[in-house]
Design brief:
Among the domains are: 64 residues; 35 residues, no CATH class. By secondary structure, the protein is mostly helical. About 3% of the residues have low confidence. α2 packs across α3 and α5 packs antiparallel against α6. Helix content is 53%, strand content 0%.
Length: 185
């Protein structure tokens, strides 16, 4: 009678390679490709992959797959502290290389990660003008006009408009030509 495999059973060399291939290239290769890369015959790789990932058939391999995934998550996973530290390193390297735009972006993202330095506000409106009454539409138009009028009052440059400034007058000899030389190549 064959011995029953448990999660404590040792993996063969091919099983170890299968686990490494499968987990390190997670989402990039299929189970069959992981089995082939581990040294299993291409003709039986699909069956071997099924057997190696089935907890009732190979609990020790499934256990090792889960353990190795957890190890890589702990080593390379994103944590708040690691994220902020990496952004600081990116900022410092960018400053050292004179890449000020990249440094500003990295510092901005650090501030966003903090959560209370930069606040992103957006307004989401539901519905459309078709769902508004005539009075609501007129009120909305009035409000928009008041914003435009307030913006116009804040600008220093007058709007060239015949009603406000009058038409542009030409000099007696017509429009004066620009005296800068025309440089064409």
């Amino acid at each position: 009678m064959a011995s029953k495999l448990t999660t404590k059973s040792r993996l063969t060399r091919k099983q170890q390679l299968f686990v490494r291939e499968l987990v390190s290239k997670d989402g990039q290769i299929t189970l069959r490709e992981a089995a082939i890369n581990a040294g299993y015959a291409p003709t039986s790789a699909h069956t071997r992959a099924y057997e190696l990932t089935h907890p009732d058939i190979s609990p020790h391999v499934v256990f090792e797959i889960n353990r190795y995934r957890a190890e890589l998550d702990a080593k390379y996973g994103v944590t708040y502290g690691r994220h902020v530290r990496d952004l600081q390193n990116i900022r410092d390297n960018a400053l050292d290389n004179g890449a000020y735009s990249a440094a500003v972006q990295a510092e901005y993202r650090r501030g966003q990660a903090q959560g209370d330095i930069y606040i992103n506000k957006s307004e989401i409106r539901h519905g459309s003008i078709d769902q508004m009454s005539k009075e609501e539409v007129m009120e909305a138009i009035k409000e928009i006009k008041s914003y435009a009028e307030a913006d116009r009052k804040q600008t220093d440059t007058p709007v060239r408009d015949e009603k406000r400034i009058g038409p542009m007058e030409a000099s007696p000899g017509g429009l004066e030509e620009d005296e800068t030389p025309d440089i064409t190549h």
